[in-house]
Write a structure and sequence with these properties.
6-stranded mixed beta sheet
Length: 756
């Protein structure tokens, strides 16, 4: 499958997803808003020249600039349009036949004194068929006329974008008597003549007249909905206008979800340095492996001829093995990052738009959930939210989120609201898990902090470098990183209150509650003071981490959306551990968490609360209003789930090892999906095997999961090397890391300067 020019595919091939969504072959089409269309076409002059079908396309095109335009005026005359705010001029010129008049008009643009239009869209044929009653002489004359026009259009194509629109098929049963001679057979003959003659003199030239043939494919699917059998329904011509906008504007506006007609982005300085680093790592690993293999052969066990005893080979020094492990990890990571780059930065693999249907979301969900039930095992411990249970929770949530993303289910509001709860549940676990660790262990050492920060951020930092994306682009990792530091700061700051000290005096519990109340007040203040929040994160170098598109609004929105749920997780952990210490709950195998009566009441209450939230989320009508309520009410369904999962003793004593396996690599799955499962930074779907959607999903999913698992192993291996337990060694490593980031900031500043 040739990569080639995706513009060619956009103009010539594609298919419908559903009834109205057009999917070009191999690339993604951006849906332009009015403001984007104006920014692209500012100071441009566009001309549509042809018959009534071209007039239809003209109206659909200008409605992308100004939706208020009405289709009125002389149908068989010229129609001007101008948007003074953006200095855009669009003209329709009535030339229903390819004849001397059209040639004269086109010729006038080739003369030096006349300003050439930036875009020319031309096409005509049906009038010639109608006026001459479909005669062969008319077709012969059409060929002569288009032959005389072709060199002029090719000359214009050197400085302007020139499109020749092929004739759409007609629905012959609906044609009026005066149009019965316009048959699809005649239209095909005229189209064949146009394609053969246009660009005949410039086969090897880059400046060509672009043949707009995709309209034929669209018409074949929709012409039966035409009012008169000749003119396309409005939705179809709107699609044609959007294709025209993508062909011209994608290379200017560079939308993330518009991969058609976009050139491959040039390598940045940081990407080139990363490439050199990974190349050297691979070479270094190969050299060390060869040296070790050679030494192994020399020191291979051999039998002592005198004593008959076997000699053991020499053991390699720790420094060598650590270096080899380091290079081995970077070698694998380099190969994986190459795959990332090829999938989502090089124009090597195809990309397609998402298209949501209920079946594409709910059928995989049911399949995966049923599959998980078949892998039920007993837990090693029966405590509330034990390790196996939290891994299982993360696993099934991650699988649901992945299906949500690839199916494009964000367009369906009830599903969106439930997925928001799953994201909140991850943050709830962050609050619960880190609070429990610090409260029980009392370990506020630098080693623990560095281990957590490294495991959370390593992959994202590498991707920021390799994929040329800002840190905030992978919003979930900054979110959990900042919340981890907030939890650490809340508990580590004076007075340090942990379980060991609180057991001696109950007043310490109130001290900790006071700390949590102060945290809640700070969260509340920042959530309603956007200015204060933006000032905090706009200071350099924090701004380099949290800015997206030149401001920190996106970061504020993401933080605000789940602002209370980490606090709820911390509070739940505190109450649970206090109840556990007071022996007010029973966590034996098969035993209910509380007495039978209390357990039954809480269980019924939890089920009702769970269903109540689902009913409310399913009745949401407005995403903005529901997002406003979400931070306060998401905890209802999360707590209801925790209680349903943990109150019955049997349910608490088992878990799904299938989900738990995915839970252990949930962070890697969440991040890797951006580039090697989805495409165009999550906006589309990666297509490794065109034409076979199910097979493509199976293959890309298999590779994606394997890569995520491998990256998890690499991160764990590197964490042991980069973040050692010895404090003096750790301090040296931290200084090296600080130097690395200082260098990265310096190179980034140089790179930004060169871009400007």
């Amino acid at each position: 499958f040739k990569g080639g020019d995706t513009c060619e595919y956009l103009l010539s091939s594609g298919r419908f997803l559903g009834e109205k969504v057009w999917q070009p072959h191999s690339c993604m089409m951006h849906k332009y808003k009015n403001s984007e269309a104006k920014n692209c076409l500012v100071d441009k002059h566009i001309v549509f020249i042809g018959d009534s079908r071209i007039r239809q396309l003209f109206y659909s095109f200008i409605k992308l600039i100004n939706p208020q335009v009405k289709e009125e005026g002389n149908k068989h005359g010229n129609i001007p349009f101008e948007d003074k705010s953006a200095s855009i001029k669009v003209d329709f010129l009535w030339y229903p036949e390819v004849n001397g008049s059209m040639r004269q008009r086109i010729k006038s643009w080739t003369e030096g004194s006349v300003a050439k239009p930036h875009i020319i869209v031309a096409g005509a044929a049906t009038w010639s068929i109608k006026i001459h009653n479909g005669s062969n002489e008319a077709l012969t004359q059409y060929k002569v006329n288009i032959t005389s026009i072709a060199p002029l259009l090719e000359k214009l194509a050197k400085s302007s974008d020139v499109y020749w629109v092929l004739q759409d098929p007609v629905y012959e049963d609906l044609l009026s008597e005066s149009r019965k001679m316009i048959t699809n057979e005649k239209i095909d003959a005229y189209n064949e003549a146009a394609v053969r003659i246009l660009n005949s003199s410039s086969r090897n030239s880059k400046a060509k007249v672009k043949v707009f043939s995709v309209s034929k494919l669209i018409a074949q699917e929709t012409i039966m909905k035409s009012a008169d059998g000749l003119h396309l329904p409005e939705s179809s011509r709107d699609t044609n206008a959007m294709i025209l906008m993508n062909v011209y504007c994608n290379k200017i506006m560079k939308p993330i979800d518009g991969s058609c007609c976009q050139p491959q982005p040039p390598l940045t300085l940081i990407q080139k340095l990363a490439f050199c680093f990974f190349t050297l790592s691979i070479i270094g690993y190969i050299i060390i492996s060869l040296i070790h293999r050679n030494n192994y052969r020399k020191n291979k066990s051999c039998t002592d001829l005198e004593s008959g005893e076997e000699k053991k080979p020499a053991i390699s020094t720790p420094n060598i093995s650590t270096l080899e492990m380091l290079l081995h990890s970077f070698c694998k990571l380099g190969l994986i990052m190459t795959y990332f780059y090829l999938c989502d930065r090089a124009n090597l693999f195809m990309k397609e738009n998402k298209f949501y249907t209920h079946s594409s979301f709910f059928i995989p969900i049911i399949y995966v959930l049923v599959l998980g039930v078949f892998f039920t095992e007993n837990t090693k411990e029966t405590k509330v939210l034990n390790r196996e249970q939290t891994d299982e929770w993360k696993g099934w949530m991650q699988l649901v989120i992945l299906i949500y993303h690839i199916s494009g289910a964000s367009t369906f509001l009830p599903v969106y609201m439930h997925i928001r709860v799953l994201v909140a549940a991850y943050l709830f676990q962050t609050g619960y898990g880190h609070f429990s660790y610090f409260w029980v262990k009392g370990d506020f050492g630098v080693y623990r902090v560095c281990q957590v920060l490294f495991r959370l951020n390593f992959l994202v930092i590498v991707l920021c470098i390799v994929m040329d994306r800002p840190y905030q682009f992978y919003y979930f990792v900054p979110l959990v990183t900042v919340w981890f530091m907030i939890i650490y700061g809340t508990l580590a700051l004076w007075p340090q209150i942990v379980q060991k000290t609180a057991n001696g005096n109950c007043l310490w519990h109130f001290g900790l509650l006071l700390k949590l109340i102060c945290l809640l007040i700070c969260i509340y203040f920042l959530s309603y003071s956007q200015g204060a929040f933006e000032k905090i994160f706009s200071f350099w170098p924090l701004s380099k981490c949290f800015e997206l598109n030149g401001n920190v609004y996106e970061w504020w929105f993401r933080w605000k959306l789940d602002r209370y749920v980490v606090f709820h997780g911390m509070l739940f952990a505190f109450i649970y551990l206090a109840l556990q210490k007071c022996q007010m709950i029973t966590e034996g195998k098969g035993d209910p968490l509380f007495s039978s009566r209390v357990s039954n009441v809480l269980l019924v209450f939890s089920v009702v609360a769970f269903l109540t939230y689902s009913i409310w989320a399913s009745s949401c009508k407005n995403k903005t209003e529901c997002n406003e309520l979400h931070p306060s009410v998401s905890v209802v369904q999360i707590l209801a789930f925790v209680l349903i999962r943990n109150i019955p003793g049997y349910v608490r004593s088992v878990y799904s090892s299938f989900f738990a396996w995915f839970g252990k690599i949930s962070l890697e799955l969440f991040i890797c999906q951006y580039h090697i499962w989805l495409a165009a930074d999550t906006k589309g779907i990666l297509v490794l095997i065109p034409g076979y959607p199910m097979f493509n999903i199976l293959v890309s999913t298999f590779i994606f999961v394997c890569v995520a698992h491998e990256i998890s192993q690499i991160t764990n291996d590197l964490a042991q090397i980069v973040v050692p337990k010895d404090n003096s060694t750790l301090l040296k490593r931290l200084l090296c890391i600080a130097g690395f980031f200082s260098g990265l900031l310096l190179v980034s500043a140089v790179q930004d300067q060169s871009r400007h």
